[in-house]
Amino acid sequence: MTTRPDLLARLALHAQQRAQAGLQRRLRTIDHVDGMWVQRDGRRLLSFCSNDYLGLAQHPALIAALKRGVDDDGVGSGSAHLIGGHRSAHAALEEALAEWTGRERALLFSTGYMANLGVMQALLEHGDVCVQDKLNHACLLDGAQLAGAELKRYPHADVDAAARQLANRGDTPALLATDGVFSMDGDIAPLRELSALCLREGATFMVDDAHGLGVLGARGEGCVGDAGLSQRDVPVLMATLGKALGCSGAFVAGPAALIDGLVQFARTYIYTTAMPPALAAATLAAVRLAQSESWRRERLHALIVRFRQGAQQLGLALMPSHTAIQPLLLGDASAATEAADTLEQQGLMVTAIRPPTVPQGKARLRITLSAAHGENDVDRLLEALSRLPASQPV
Description:
Layout: H1 7-20, E1 32-34, E2 37-40, E3 43-47, H2 60-73, H3 81-85, H4 88-101, E4 105-109, H5 112-123, E5 129-133, H6 138-146, E6 150-154, H7 159-168, E7 174-179, H8 191-201, E8 204-208, H9 223-226, E9 236-240, E10 250-254, H10 256-265, H11 267-270, H12 277-292, H13 295-314, E11 325-331, H14 333-345, E12 348-349, E13 351-353, E14 363-368, H15 375-386
Parallel strand pairs: 3-12, 5-6, 5-7, 7-8, 8-9
Antiparallel strand pairs: 1-2, 2-3, 4-10, 9-10, 11-14, 13-14
C-alpha cells in the first residue's frame, strides 16, 4: 500500500486552517434582485457590493435585446467561435467595442480571466519577462506564470521600480501589464508614465480595464481613453462586459496583428464554447446605452463625491479612490467581518475583503457605488458607517 498523501485530505486540511484563522469564504445565495436591492435569507438588503456601476443589468433595453436574441438564435451558441459558434451578434459587438475603445479590432472571450490567460499564453514564451504591479488582479499574475514567463512584480504604482525591472532584462522580450482601475483599492494606475516607459524600453504594454470601461472617459471608453492614450500607447487592452455594462464576458482590443494572433494561439479562445449570441445582442444594447446616456456617469460621479465628502466629515479611513470602488480600510480581518455583519443587520449589504485577497493588515469593507443608487441611499450608508466603532482610521 502506498503512503502517498491524499490530495482531498490535504485540501480539507487547508480549508480547516483557513476557517480556524477566521478567513473562510462563504457562498450565500441571492434570491431576488431589484435594482440595488437584493433578497437574501429572507431579508431585503440595499446592496453596496455590486459592480453594476451604470445600473444597466436590469435595463429594459437589455432584457428586450436578450429575448429577441433567444427568439432568433436560441439559448446557446452550440460550439466554439472557430467551429460554428461565431454569429452575426458576436461580430457586431466586436465591431462596436473596437470603435468605442479606438482600436482596430476586438475579440470576445467568455470571461475576463480567460481573456487575460489567453493573451499572455499567446504573447509570452518561456524565458520572456512579464513585469506587473503587485496589486494586479489574480488572472494577470496567473497568466504570466502559466505562460512560463519570468514574473517580476513592482511595488504598487511605482513606475521607477518597473523601469528598473525592465532595464535589468533589457535584451529579453517583455510585457508590462497592469490593472487600469485596481479592483480592491479603486485607484487608477499611472498609465501615461507606464506607457512612456514601455515605449522607451521596447516593452509591450497591456491594460486590464475591467473596472474602468463604461465609467471613465467622455464616452465611457475607459481609463485608457480618459488618460488620452491611443492604440500605439496601449497596444493590448482587455475589459470585461459584466461590470458597468451589466452583462457577462470580456474582450481584448488592439491592432489587427494582435487579434489575428489570438485567434490562432489563444487557447482560452480556441477551445471553449462561444458566449450565447443573445447575450452578445444584449451587450451591444448596453454599449450603446453607455455611450449615449452620459447622465449615468455624471450621476455616479456625483454620488462618489457625496460619499467621499460625507466620509471625510465623519473621519472615516477611506482609501484614496475617485472611482466607483470606495474601500474603507479597517485593518483587522475580524473587524471587517464584524462590520459587514453589523451593516447587514441594518439592512445594508457590504462585502468584507480579507486576506489573502488583500495583504495582511489591510482588511476592508469594499463599498461600490452605482448610478442606480440615490442620494438617500448614500446618506443611509454613511449614517450606518458612522456608528461602526471599527470604522475609525487604523
